[in-house]
Task: structure prediction
Amino acid sequence: MRTSALGLAAVLLAASMPFAARAALITHVRSLTVPDTSTGICTNKASIWQSAELLFPQFDPAMGTLTGIRIFFDVKLVTPAKLVWDNERDESRTGRYSIRTGYKVVGPHVTPSWHYYYAWNWYETLAQDSDGDPDFIGSDSLTQVTTTAGRMNKKAPGPSSFAGYQGTGTVALRFRKKTYSDYPDPEKKWNFALRFDHTGETTGTVSLRYEYVPEPTTLVSWAGLFGMGLIGLSWRGRKGK
Ligand SMILES: [Ca+2]
Ligand SMILES: [Ca+2]
Result:
C-alpha cells in the first residue's frame, strides 16, 4: 500500500511539472485611431508623420518569468490618403510615382528594424506642362487617392529588451504612421509641387502579448498537496495492517 501510494504521488508530481513549466500568454489589445492630418505642402517629396500613444499594462514579475514579448498591429486607412501634384516644368511627361504608408511602433528597447511596416502603391500618369500659377489646379495637376493597410507581428529580440515592460505600472507604445510620396527621377529633370490634402484616417488594433512561465509557487503548492496526500495514504496503509 505504501509503495503504491508513493508511486501514485510520484506520477502525479511528475505530471504536474510540465504543466507548471508550460509557457502562458497574456494579450492586451488596444484600439487605435490616428485622425486625418491637415494639408502639408512640400517640393518633390511629400512626407507627413502622424502618431498616437497607447498605454499597456506592464508584466507583473510576481506572475512569473517573462520569456517573450510580441507586438501585433492590424490597421488600415479608413479614409483614403489624397495627394495632389503640380508640374512646375514647361514639359509634359508620363511620370511613375508612389504613395507609401509606413507604420512603426516605438517603445522601450524597440528599434525601427523591430517594428516597421510599409505599404505602397505605384501610379503612372501624364503630367502636362506647367500652366503657371495657381498650383494644384489646372491641366498640370494630378490628383491621386490611395488606401493602404498594414498587418504586423513582431517579436522582441530578447530578454535585454524586456526591462521597460516589467513592473506594476504601464508601458507606453507610440504608433507612428508616415505617409509620403516621391518619384524616380535619376536625371533630376522634374520639379513638382506636392500637397497632401489629408493623409487619411487610420484605425485598427495594436496588441501587446507577454509570454511567460508562471511562478513555481504553483508547482510548490501542488507538490505540497501531493506530499500531504502521500502522508495520509501512508498513514492509512499502516493503520490497515
Ligand atoms: Ca504648375
Ligand atoms: Ca497648375
About this structure: The first strand starts at residue 24 and ends at 34. Residues 86, 131, 134-135, 137-138, 140-141 surround calcium ion (ligand 2) (CB under 6 Å).
